[in-house]
Amino acid sequence: MASDPYILDDLSRLVGGLSDGDLNRDGSELLNDVVGKLERHAENYGTAAGTITLKLGFEVNSKGQVRVGFALDSKTPKPKTGSSAYYVTDDGKLSVKNPRQRELPLDDLKARRALDQ
Fold first, then answer.
1. Bridge-partner residues for 73, per DSSP?
2. pLDDT at residue 115 is higher than 80
3. How many independent structural domains does the chain possess?
4. pTM for this one?
5. Cα-based distances in Å from 75 to 8, 28, 54, 70, 80
6. DSSP assignment of 53-91, as one string?
């Protein structure tokens, strides 16, 4: 017996028809975007995990009409950001040199060695 083409008892048929197929198109684009981001992240950091969430909401009224709402969402790893260490000077400015570190007189040592030779 052939199935009734008007009955939506299959999730893929329901999703495929939502918003005249726009949800399916948007979901397919999201799938490719997520996989691409995961691939780039894994190349840089070894592994990557992500999710795509399809949320369907159903509202039935007293006349038997059903309104189906939907939303797509995805989660992918955020790119890792770097950091740099600096020092704060006594007057509150950033410095690449530690103001509390004494300097060894290496320049003087080089000059003395040159004189000794």
1. 53
2. no
3. 1
4. 0.65
5. 29, 15, 12, 17, 15
6. EEEEEEEE-TTS-EEEEEEEEEE-PPPP------EE-TT
Supply the range of the domain harboring residue 42.
11-78
Average pLDDT over residues 95-113: 77
Position 73 in a domain = yes
DSSP class of residue 99 equals: T
Residue of 54 and 98 predicted with greater confidence: 54
Contact 66, 58 (CB under 8 A): yes
CB 86 within 8 A of CB 96: yes
- Calculate mean pLDDT across residues 58-62: 97
Q: Residue 49 carries which DSSP code? A: -
